[in-house]
Structures are given as C-alpha cells and as structure tokens.
Amino acid sequence: MSADLRIPDGVQPRGLEGWPPPAMDPVGPMSQPLNTLTWVLLAMVAIVSVVVVVALWLALFGPRSWRRKLGGERLVLIAGFAFPVVVLTGLLVYGLTTTRQVSAAPEPGEMRIRVTGEMWWWRVAYLDAQGREVIQDANEVHIPVGQPVVFELESADVIHSFWVPRLGGKMDMIPGRRNILRLQADEPGAFGGQCAEYCGGPHALMGLVVVAHAPTDFAAWQARAALPAARNSLPAGAAVFEASGCGACHTIRGTAANGQAGPDLTHVGSRRTLGAGILPNNQGTMAGWISDSQSIKPGNRMPAYPVLTGQQLRDVSAYLESLK
Amino acid sequence: MRLAAAAAALSLPLGLCACADKSDAPRPIAGAEASRGLAVIERTGCAACHRVPGVDWPQGTVGGSLAGFADRSLIAGRFPNQPDVLVRWLRDAPSLSPETGMPTMPISDAEARDVAAYLYTLK
User: Fold this and answer.
1) From A7, which residue of chain B is nearest by alpha-carbon distance?
2) What is d(CA B91, CA B83) in angstroms, rounded to the nearest whole number?
3) CA A180, CA A103: separation in Å to the nearest integer?
4) Which of A83, A177, A285, B3 has the fewest CB atoms inside 10 Å of its own CB, making it the most exposed?
5) How far is CA B99 from its chain centroid?
6) Per-residue confidence (pLDDT) for residue B26, from 0 to 100
7) Residue range of the domain that includes A62
8) Rounded distance, CA A116 to CA A194, Å?
9) Tell me, what's the pLDDT at A159?
C-alpha cells in the first residue's frame, strides 16, 4: 500500500488527549451541532448557577425588601417551577432534534460499515448495497470525506461504546442489538477513537483509528483493501506464522490462515497502529506484541509466544509488516 | 561541615584508585539531543519491548529494561557500550547479532544518535 496511507512520522491520531479536547474540536456536521449543544448547555448551567448564588446571597444578607420578595410563594412558582419546565423542555427538544438524524435508519444508497465490539478490539466490515460484508478488517476504519457514513454498531460479547470524539458522539454497542451512528469527516485525516463503556480488563487500551480520505484516495484504498494478501515474498516469516498456529485465530486472505477469533491480518502492515489503536505500527512493536502482548495489554486474548527465537520473531514480524 | 570534609578526605583516595570515574567520562554524541531522543522512543514504541525510564506505558518485558543503561559496560551483553556501536545497534541490531529478536528499526542515523543520547542519561 502506498506510503500516503501511513501516518506521517510523529503524528498519532488523538483519541482523548490534547488541547482543545478532541470532543470539543469537531470536524464534521455530526459533531459540530453536538459541540454547539455542549456550549449552550454549559452557558445555561453558568447563568443559572450565578442567578442561584446571587439569590442565595441576597436571601441571607440582602436588604429586607429583597429578602421579603425572595421569600414569597410567587417566586417559587415562577423561578422554581415554570422556568425549569420551560427551559428544560426546550433543551430536551433541541437535544433530541440535534441527534435524531445521527441515529436514523440507513437510507438506500448510504455507505454502511459494520463495526463489532470485541473484548478488546474492533471487528470492521464494509457492506455492499445488499448488506453483505465485502471487506473485512480490524481496528481501523476508512471513510471518504464529505459524506455521511452509516456505522452499524454491534457487540460480540459485552457492552462497548463506539466513540470517535472529533467526528461524533458516543454510541453503545449492545449484544443482540444493532445501533446506528452516522459520522462524517469534512477534512482528510486520522481521527482517534476509544471504547467509552467499561468492558472489563484492558478496556482503557481499546482504541481505534478512523481515517478519512479524499474520495479518489478512498476508492484507491478500497480497491487495495479488497485484494487478498500479496503472494508473500518472505517465506521464512510466513512459515513461522503457519507453524505457530497463528492462523487458528487470524485470517490472512489468500493464505491458509482463516481464523475468526482475532483481527483480520490481511493488510495489517498498512495499519497506523497495533493492538487496537495503542502502539505505533512497525516491525519492532510487531515483534514485541507477538512475543508478549500481555506485558503491553494485560488480559488481552492473545497469548504470549515465548517459544519463538529472536530470528523467528524477526522473520514473522517482517512478514506481517510486509502485508500492506 | 566537618563530616563533609571527612567524607571528602575519605573519598579522595578511593577516587584515585578507581580505573574510570564514569561520572567524569560521559559519552558525548555530537549534535545529539536527549530530549529529542525520548520523543523518538515514544513515537517508535521502543517501550513495547523495553522498560524505558521516562515512558509510563507500555513497559514491555520482551527485551531488557533500559534503566541504568548508561552504567552498563555491554550492549545486549555482547558489545562494548560505546556511542558508535549503540547507534548502529539501535538502527540495525541484526547486523551485529544475527540471533537477536530486535529488528531493524525505522529511524534515521540522526534519530538513533538522539536516542543514544537519551539512553546515556539513564544512570
């Protein structure tokens, strides 16, 4: 895969870190109204807090005439009952209408991507118009800029929550349900995401990356991603992969490896991160992950492989990194 | 004061006896910057395999801990811990040790020198 799909040196997608906070730094029409809603709510909270504190001060220390007014039943009925009912109802309607289109059922012709939460990674499938999975991938989602993309969110085990702060709000992934979330990026880039519902063990290390491409770049990516793995030029590493039984859990399309328990590795070398959005992706981190992912992401379901020699580790990691 | 003077008097002959006073023999690397080296370490993910003081997470256990690296005589237990050897090791460990599990790393010579400078701050 061409170099332009790799993250530039030194640029990790921000999930939750940085300033301004990614959740308040929107880049699309799904996250922009949420950001406005956040500021409106914050402003309301600030105004009401100031009014309450001032009234409290007046009631305790103010002039007698003010204290008499504040003690009346009229004030309780207006400021304590009518005002909150009107304002909170208004905010409720505003909030619900703002988020309604985000989770509406997919229309024909909309691009659909199924993301399934797994302990503790993301299974990704690109769907065709009939809803069939045409490309399978993991932990990284590619979208074209400038159009809404429907995410069909499911869970394979416990409740997870899909959250890419710069693109939209959180949406739970609930076993047995399919929740809809629309995201749209208005500029190309890599946007970090994070599981936002505690799902046990290394939940905090369950990240993902959404990569937004200009439409032509996206088409090129899609064409590449649909291909099986290149006929391998690194037979030594492929042999280690096969002999170690990696294919029992991982699929590399175009080879005998067809396991379904773990992430698809057909193009793992082209991903920006390893271990579900948590490590930079290079041969060194790949070797470390294979040798003992438990020291990096304790409790994840891939066992350590302390049986591999240094040479085997280098061979198999070189092979996987070559899967662009 | 008197205690300090006594300590100094005691340590003077000890210092003279030592073959090399490490604190007086730093390994300077021209143009390298330890702080840039730490940034390279974080960006490259060295800590996926090595515990690196200054990096909170991860603290990998696949390769050795790099705590106290500046005081070690050998790199990977085999090669003299000198800047030129270390810089070569950081970029292309297999060229020195074909059995090592440490792959060639995607860093430039300048970056490797910065990393080496950082490692030599780890007393």
Assistant:
1) B43
2) 12
3) 5
4) B3
5) 21
6) 66
7) 28-101
8) 13
9) 98
